[in-house]
Amino acid sequence: MADDTALSRRGLLLSIAAAMVSGCSGRGCARSPNGTQAVDTSLVQVTEVEFGPAEGGPQKAVVLVPRWGSPQERYPLLIALHGRGESNRGLDVGARGWTRDYYLDRAFARLRRPPLTLDDLFHIGTQDYVARLNERIASHPFRGLVVACPYTPDILGTRALDAAEPFASFLVEHLIPKMRASFPVDPSVSATGIDGVSLGGRVALLAGMSRIESFGAIGTLQAAIRAPEVDAVAGIVSAAMHRKGKPIPLRLLTSDEDPFRPALQELSQSLAGRGVKTEMVTIAGPHDYAFNQGPGAYELLTWHDRALRGELG
């Protein structure tokens, strides 16, 4: 398929089920999508934040905050961007994409109560993968992030690689300052990250690199990078890293059924040839909602929980 608007049959069925489950923000809520075991998400506070015209809007973000810390606790800030399917359904749907459609609050809560099972991953991947993921969680227990999920603009309709510029300005000038002022966020650049899936991965990479001085880690999940763009995108990344003056964690995660996998692997190789260190990861799974709800959500949270604390090798 060309992008994440073309869902597999299973992904489509899961997305319909997701649309029937509203975001869960109150204490005692349980998420049990698609017949899976109910998960108490009361460990996570979910808040909607709106941005008016004077704040770069109209815009909206759903913000996830751990409830388990002390009043003095400050968490790294992760900006998580959704896929194209949510972009095309409007501001409200987009902002709620990671919670309503991808069940990020469910993954958030499960990481505090391991071990995970294949049910938690919606049976995407293997038992060996689940075992390795649990080993990582046991070695580095999930401490928590403040995750801001803004509406992500659809820039896939253009070939212009500067199409994320207006959104990048909104993030740096309005969203990040508001998150730091309103939530228990570590205000340091090194503790500020950006990531996203498919369209969101493309936007995260381009916006993150254009404002690299504002980020301490940049990740992507199945980023929508096209093969003809690889050299130009590698040049953008290389120039940004040089401008930053020091390397920051950069991860390109794909899956064996991801249509963007060949381009992402080529991008990783091109960056290596330019002296840019990249963590290239390929795991099992499709390019659809089930991946976002399963491995995608857990990989997003666990990687940034370490990367934004400076704990990656």
Largest sheet: 8 strands, mixed
Strand portion: 15-25%
The CATH class name reads Alpha Beta
H-E order: HEEEEEHHHHHEHEHEHEHEH
What does the model show?
With 313 residues, the chain is of the alpha/beta class. It has a single domain (29-307), classed as 3-Layer(aba) Sandwich (Rossmann fold). It has 11 helices and 10 strands. The protein has helices at 9-19, 84-87, 91-95, 97-101, 104-111, 127-139, 165-182, 199-210, 230-244, 261-273, 289-307, and strands spanning 30-31, 39-40, 44-51, 59-66, 77-81, 146-150, 192-196, 217-221, 250-255, 279-283. Helix 5 (104-111) crosses helix 11 (289-307) and helix 7 (165-182) crosses helix 8 (199-210). The radius of gyration is 18 Å and the shape is globular. It starts with 8 loop residues before the first helix and ends in a 6-residue tail after the last helix.
Descriptors for this entry?
single chain, 313 residues, alpha/beta, Rossmann fold, two-stranded antiparallel ribbon, 11 helices
List the helices and strands and how they pair.
Layout: H1 9-19, E1 30-31, E2 39-40, E3 44-51, E4 59-66, E5 77-81, H2 84-87, H3 91-95, H4 97-101, H5 104-111, H6 127-139, E6 146-150, H7 165-182, E7 192-196, H8 199-210, E8 217-221, H9 230-244, E9 250-255, H10 261-273, E10 279-283, H11 289-307
Parallel strand pairs: 5-6, 5-7, 7-8, 8-9, 9-10
Antiparallel strand pairs: 1-2, 3-4, 4-6
Helix pairs in contact: 5-11, 7-8, 8-9, 9-10
